[in-house]
Amino acid sequence: GSVKSYAAVDLGASSGRVMVGRAGRDSLELVEAHRFPNRPVRTPEGLRWDVLSLYAGVLDGLKAAGALGGGRVDSVGIDSWAVDHGLLDADGALLGNPVHYRDTRTEGVAEKVWATVPAAELYAATGLQYAPFNTLYQLIAARSSAQFAHAERLLLIPDLLTYWLTGEQGTELTNASTTQLIDPRTRDWSRDVADRLGIDLGLFAPLRRPGDPAGLLRPEVLEATGLSGPVPVTTVGSHDTASAVAAVPATGERFAYICTGTWSLAGLELGAPVLTEASRAANFTNELGLDGTVRYLRNIMGLWLLQECVRAWGDPDLGELLRGAAAVPALRSVVDAGDSAFLAPGRMPERIAEACRESGQPVPRTPAETTRCILDSLALAHRRAVAEAQALADHPVDVVHIVGGGTRNALLCQLTADACGLPVVAGPAEAAALGNVLVQARAHGLVGDRASMRRLLVRTQPLVRYEPQGDPEAWRAAEARLAGR
Length: 485
Ligand code: LFR
Prior knowledge:
With 485 residues, the protein is an alpha+beta fold. The chain has 19 helices and 21 strands. A 7-stranded mixed sheet has the order 17-18-16-15-19-20-21, with helices on both faces. Strands 3-2-1-6 form a 4-stranded mixed sheet. It has a two-stranded antiparallel ribbon with strand order 4-5. A hairpin with a 3-residue loop joins β1 and β2 (15-24). α10 (240-246) packs across α17 (431-443). The longest helix has 27 residues, at 367-393. It is globular. The structure holds beta-L-fructofuranose. Beta-L-fructofuranose is lined by residues 81-83, 101, 239-241, 261-263, 265, 299. Beta-L-fructofuranose binds next to α10.
C-alpha cells in the first residue's frame, strides 16, 4: 500500500522537534528530522518565550523533513505546551514576546477572579484545575497593560505558528480547553464565565478541531523550506498532552496514563467530565482530547524537578546520576510533587532540601540522594493521582501506560509500577509526535478510529512492561507521612 509522510512539529518547554512520521495501512515509523533548544529568556519584563527562534526552528525542521523525503511531505501538524499565547494587533502583527507560564505575573490573580466568579462555580462551568497559569488568569493579569489595549486577537502558541505558516487563524479545541474559558460538556466557549469576567471572546479566532484543515504553507514558506507545494497544514490535538494521550497504546478502556516529560500528567480518558466538588478539591482537570473525549488528569511537577537540579549541579552525566539514585535506599524522604511551590525556576536542590527539613524527614545531601528523593516523590504522586482519578471518576483500571520522555527512565517506570501496585507499560517516548502524526494520517483517510490508531501503535512501537515489585505497605506509609497522618 501507499506510505505517506507527515511532519509533526512538537514543541516542549525545553526543546522543539520536527519528526517525520511515515504511515501506511499497517506501518508507522517515526524519524527525527530536526531538534532545537527552546530557551526561555528573562527580560526586564519577566520570563518570555523566544517565539521567533522557535519559528526559525520549525522552518529549519520542515526543510530537514523535506530533505528526508525528496522535497515532499504530505501534511504538517503542530502541537506544543498549553495555555500560552501571542497577542496580535489589528494588522495581525505580534505584540511582544509570549509570556512564559512560569512567569510570576499571575501571582494573586486567581483570588481576584474568584471574588467575581467563586472557584467552585468556575470549576463547575469549566472543569479546569486551579493552576496559576491558566490562560484566564493570564488574561486578567495582562488586561491593564498597554499591550493588551492594542490586542485584537489571541492565538495559542501552535495556532500562532500555524498562522505564520499558512496565514490562517483558528483556535484549536483541545488546547482551548486549557484556557479555562471552555465548557467541557458543550465543548464550546463558556460565555457566562467570559461575560462575568469581562473577557471579550472576540479575541479568539473560531474554534477548529483535530483533523480540520488549517490552510496551506505560504509560498514564502515553501521557498524557505524547499518543500514542493501544495502542503496542507492539518489541525491536530495541538495541546501536546492531547496528542500524547491519543498515542497511548492501550488495548481496552481500563487504563490510566501518565504523560511524562517536564510535567507528569496522570489520569484517565473519559467520555464525560467529572465536575464534582470532590474532584475540584482534588484538583483534577477536565481537558478535552480527541473525538470529544475528556482528559481527566492531574498536573504533577514531573521531571522538571530533576531538570532544574541537573541545571543547578552544572549538567552532570544523567546515566551516572540515575545509577547513583538507584543505589540510595528507597523512600527515605518524599516531597509533594504536586505542589505548585515548585513551579518557578531556580534553587531547586535547596527547595527540595527545605521541603524535607520542614516535614521532619532526612535531608538529601548528595545529588544521588536528591535524585532518589525526586523519583520516589514522583512515583508517589503518580500513585495518588492514579488511585484518586479511579475513585473520583468511578473508572477502575488494570494497567498504567507511561508515555513521553520519562519512559527512558527505567527507575522511574519501575518505581511507578511499585507505587501504583499495577503493571506499567512504558512507551512510546515520542508519544506527542506520534499522536500528531496519527491524527494527520486519519484526516487523510489512512487510519480509522481511535481504537485502530492505538492498535497500529501496539503493532509498531517498542513497549516495555514493568511488573509491580516490593512492599506495597512502604508506599502507603510514605503517602501517610506526606499527608501528615
Ligand atoms: C505539558 C503541558 C501540560 C500543561 C503545561 C503547561 O507539556 O502542556 O499539559 O499543563 O504543559 O502548558
